[in-house]
Task: inverse folding
């Protein structure tokens, strides 16, 4: 199994497509933070919803913490696209090119082949998020330094710099679980598809449709929204409530974990039994 | 003769279309076993079922004495395969592609073996080149290299000469002969280039519409059939008289005579011609497996 994972990672990291994701994350972080550097006041005004006209803000509001917090919002649409570029292709790409036969005619069970691909997809996702988090934090530090974080949700919450590192850590963990739902959804579709386009476009389409339904059809779909996985994509923000709602955080983790297991199981059952005709 | 692969009553349908219908055959150790059939006859499906790529609806496959199962892939350690077209990772070199397969096959110190098989298929000088720069023939040879890399006991080659020029086809035939004789590997060889099967296989199976039409030794199957023989001699009239007296049906072209005859009757005919003081310049047998194959599959 370890050998299969090693070879899967070898394949992933020898493909140019993989570095598009990493490059895009680095570009997004740089572009955002440079614009923040030059247009900081306008951005702060937008984020604080013009509250600075009511309150007097002093100190270093534009800092690495704020930059990272804002960039975490990319977890909703942008990062899933970058994840799908690699994970959506992980089985279907090999089915369409025929290289899947090279693996399935070796003495390894299909379950092992499948899970080696799943684990490699998870590692890629984790790396992408680590680069997003660390690069944003480090670049933000060099450009702006550290400082307190002002969060506007139902009200304004100001977090002390010393109270932030653990919140970011756990926020990234919750966000990572959300992105692993995307990873497993794209791998599941990839197990069914025979070309790379369907899983990539399919996963993004599902996420967009569910997000639109969540926003536009809130009244109609309200009872089921807590069980829709996209509803939980911004729940990492729960870590930025002054008093943490542990029940909500646990619910988010359980619902998303359920979807991860569901998607991976459906993908596995299909992959184990499908006829390889490519 | 030791049976290495035994297929019994194999059945497979895709939807309502029955691809294989009670197909049975046996491959013996040391065989180069030809697997013939027109397009859509079920050859590739059969090979994919043997390799665990496709699930059969019914039937039994025994490999090296053990019944194989779709979910148990352990038997594949003794099998190498090249199915239809050779697919590799184009952005990797020939060496890296084989290195991955060597890792999958648990080869210890794979470098030597990789160089050995690349040398066998004449790709050693290009081992660092990316596969996407390879011609079709080079990919086919690399496909054979990956199939034999882990020194399997049994190799399945599905139309390995597909799309190759005559020189490429000859190269592939030489490689197949070498690995069969030198490495003692049994080969199941599917091809639509029938002359190839006739040239290199010792036993063969002909299938059509998923059913077995004929199975046996190539030379025995061939001797069952009448072939066309062309004869060029110094005295055409004497030969015409001789063939008429012996009861042969024949026709005369400008400077040669064509007649239909069984293969094992050729020596006797030649002796008769010589005994009648007719000098033979040329005797050609024009019957080929193509005719035989077409006749069987048409029926």
Result:
């Amino acid at each position: 199994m370890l050998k299969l994972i090693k070879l899967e990672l070898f394949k992933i990291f020898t493909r140019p497509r993989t570095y598009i994701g990493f490059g895009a994350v680095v570009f997004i972080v740089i572009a955002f933070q440079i614009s923040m550097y030059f247009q900081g006041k306008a951005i702060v005004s937008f984020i604080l919803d013009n509250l600075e006209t009511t309150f007097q803000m002093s100190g270093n509001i534009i800092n690495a913490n704020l930059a990272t917090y804002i960039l975490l919002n990319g977890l909703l649409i942008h990062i899933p696209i970058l994840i799908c570029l690699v994970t959506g292709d992980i089985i279907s790409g090999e089915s369409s090119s025929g290289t899947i036969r090279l693996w399935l005619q070796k003495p390894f069970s299909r379950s092992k082949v499948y899970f080696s691909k799943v684990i490699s997809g998870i590692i890629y996702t984790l790396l992408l998020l680590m680069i997003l988090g660390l690069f944003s934090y480090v670049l933000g530090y060099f450009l702006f330094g550290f400082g307190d974080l002002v969060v506007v949700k139902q009200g304004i919450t100001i977090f002390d710099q010393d109270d932030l590192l653990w919140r970011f850590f756990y926020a990234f963990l919750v966000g990572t679980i959300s992105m692993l739902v995307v990873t497993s959804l794209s791998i599941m579709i990839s197990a069914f598809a025979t070309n790379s386009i369907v899983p990539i476009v399919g996963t993004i389409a599902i996420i967009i449709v569910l997000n639109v339904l969540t926003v536009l059809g809130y009244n109609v779909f309200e009872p089921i929204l807590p069980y829709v996985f996209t509803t939980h994509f911004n729940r990492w923000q729960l870590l930025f409530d002054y008093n943490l709602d542990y029940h909500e955080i646990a619910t988010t983790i359980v619902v998303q974990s359920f979807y991860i297991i569901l998607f991976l199981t459906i993908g596995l059952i299909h992959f184990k039994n499908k006829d390889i005709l490519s | 003769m030791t049976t290495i692969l035994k297929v019994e009553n194999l059945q497979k349908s895709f939807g309502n279309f029955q691809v294989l219908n009670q197909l049975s055959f046996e491959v013996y150790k040391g065989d180069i076993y030809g697997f013939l059939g027109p397009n859509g006859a079920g050859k590739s499906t059969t090979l994919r079922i043997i390799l665990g790529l496709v699930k059969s609806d019914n039937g039994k496959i025994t490999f090296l004495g053990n019944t194989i199962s779709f979910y148990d892939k352990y038997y594949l350690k003794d099998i190498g395969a090249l199915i239809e077209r050779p697919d590799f990772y184009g952005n990797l070199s020939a060496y890296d592609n084989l290195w991955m397969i060597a890792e999958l096959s648990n080869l210890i110190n794979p470098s030597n073996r990789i160089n050995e098989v690349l040398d066998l298929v004449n790709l050693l000088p290009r081992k660092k080149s990316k596969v996407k720069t390879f011609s079709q023939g080079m990919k086919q040879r690399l496909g054979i290299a990956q199939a034999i890399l882990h020194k399997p006991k049994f190799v399945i080659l599905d139309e390995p000469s597909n799309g190759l020029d005559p020189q490429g086809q000859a190269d592939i035939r030489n490689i197949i002969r070498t690995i069969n004789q030198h490495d003692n590997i049994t080969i199941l060889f599917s091809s639509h280039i029938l002359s190839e099967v006739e040239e290199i296989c010792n036993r063969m199976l002909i299938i059509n519409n998923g059913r077995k039409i004929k199975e046996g030794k190539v030379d025995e199957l061939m001797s069952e059939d009448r072939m066309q023989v062309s004869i060029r001699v110094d005295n055409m009239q004497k030969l015409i008289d001789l063939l008429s007296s012996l009861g042969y049906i024949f026709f005369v072209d400008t400077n040669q005579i064509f007649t239909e005859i069984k293969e094992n009757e050729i020596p006797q005919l030649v002796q008769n011609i010589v005994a009648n003081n007719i000098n033979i310049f040329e005797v050609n047998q024009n019957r080929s497996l193509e005719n035989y194959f077409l006749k069987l599959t048409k029926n």
The first helix of chain B runs from residue 43 to 50. The longest strand of chain B covers residues 3-14. DSSP finds ten helices and 14 strands in chain B. Chain B has a mean pLDDT of 83.
